[in-house]
Design goal:
The chain has one domain (2-10, 17-87). The chain is globular. The chain is mostly helical and 88 residues long. The model has no long low-confidence stretch (mean pLDDT 86). The longest helix is centred in the middle third of the chain and has 21 residues, at 20-40. The protein is 76% helix and 0% strand. The protein has 5 helices and no strands.
């Protein structure tokens, strides 16, 4: 529950409208948290697909495509979000 709450709380943090990467990082992180909750409940559907799509968009935005990010784009989001939240 705390991971989900942290993701929701980040939405209320100030957002500089010009920082498209920050927007997509926060959106991808939130969608990942929602998908994780659904997956833990045994539901693998739209939430998982949306989280994957947002993660791939962030990977492409960051120009970070590698075999590792292609294999686990949501893992990339988690790592990047962990770094971002430490700075904010």
């Amino acid at each position: 529950m705390s991971e989900f709450r942290e993701a929701l709380d980040s939405i209320d943090m100030p957002f500089s409208g010009g920082d498209v990467r920050e927007y997509w990082l926060r959106k991808a992180a939130l969608l990942d948290r929602v998908a994780l909750r659904c997956e833990r409940a045994g539901v693998h559907g739209e939430a998982s697909a949306d989280a994957e799509a947002a993660a791939l968009y962030l990977v492409d935005t960051d120009r970070a495509r590698t075999p590792a990010t292609d294999a686990d784009p949501r893992g990339y989001v988690r790592r990047e979000y962990a770094c971002w939240i430490k700075r904010h």
